[in-house]
Write a structure and sequence with these properties.
Two copies of one chain form a homodimer. Chain A is an alpha+beta fold. Chain A has a single domain, classed as Pnp Oxidase, Chain A, CATH 2.30.110.10. Chain A contains four helices and nine strands; from the N terminus they run βαββββαββαββα. In chain A, strands 1, 2, 3, 4, 5, 6, 7, 8 and 9 form a nine-stranded mixed sheet that branches. At the A-B interface, strand 2, strand 3, strand 6, strand 7 and strand 8 of A face strand 2, strand 3, strand 6 and strand 7 of B.
Chain lengths: ~150, ~150
């Protein structure tokens, strides 16, 4: 049984909302081939992709330096209500280096607190090269998005 | 440079709080060897471990049926404040089958809404066989917990 619904405009709008609203992600990386989930700050720039500014000292940055495969869960559960009915988006792909100086203004306009450490040499800006995504809009509302679906959102 | 502090009683108490307070986890599994992070309900029973009740139809249950290695991030970011200063706990390990009938009363006492589907045959109760954990209590407050540290909490 395929639990996925066909993608529609409501699901596309919800995907865009979750991407635009995410300030952090649960970041899944591989450590010695096993999954490791940590929290990382993130920022979606429409038309440019999803970015993470990570310290080289962090466990996730170390893991990604060895294997760039990763997954991000966006959409924190709210303080109220059933967290399993809260919309969330699973992104799968790999990180690639981003142009940190070129993206400085756009990043800091949306994350002003990062001004303090953006230029530190041990902070690296990574972009998610997206593979596939899973949108879960609550019980019974699951969608699968291809790379093309995601590109069409921006 | 090792960014971890030595484990102390405050860090142990914080770990216990995060475990006891978690109703959901960001669950990292492997799909075709790549990380996939999804949201799953969870319940910590002191002295017995961390449990997840998963539908066989879900992506994470399918992934775990192939490879039981997983990681759970506990500690949802609050609605207020900087999410990267919010305490969170990364657990790493593997799932193993749990005794669903034997744990029914303890599980439903704490998760009464699950009464509706607990007995469905396509819902499976899994227990996390813990390896190691990482506690992040906010900026500069990172701790590494071994299996023995975690066992001593219960």
């Amino acid at each position: 049984m395929d639990p996925y619904r066909p993608l529609d405009d409501d699901a596309r709008a919800l995907t865009r909302d979750v991407l635009a609203g995410a300030t952090t992600a649960a970041l899944g990386t591989l450590r010695d081939g096993a999954p490791m989930v940590t929290r990382a700050g993130c920022l979606w720039l429409p038309g440019q992709g999803l970015f993470m500014l990570l310290s080289d000292l962090s466990d996730h940055a170390r893991a990604l330096a060895v294997d760039p495969a990763c997954s991000l869960l966006l959409g924190e559960a709210g303080a109220r209500g059933d967290p399993l009915t809260h919309p969330r988006l699973t992104l799968m792909g790999r990180v690639e280096p981003a142009d940190k100086p070129a993206l400085r203004a756009a990043y800091l306009a949306r994350r002003p607190k990062a001004t303090v450490y953006y230029d530190f040499t041990d902070f690296r800006l990574l972009r998610l090269a997206l593979g596939e995504a899973l949108l879960n809009g609550g019980f019974g509302k699951a969608y699968r998005l291809t790379r093309a679906d995601l590109d069409a959102l921006a």
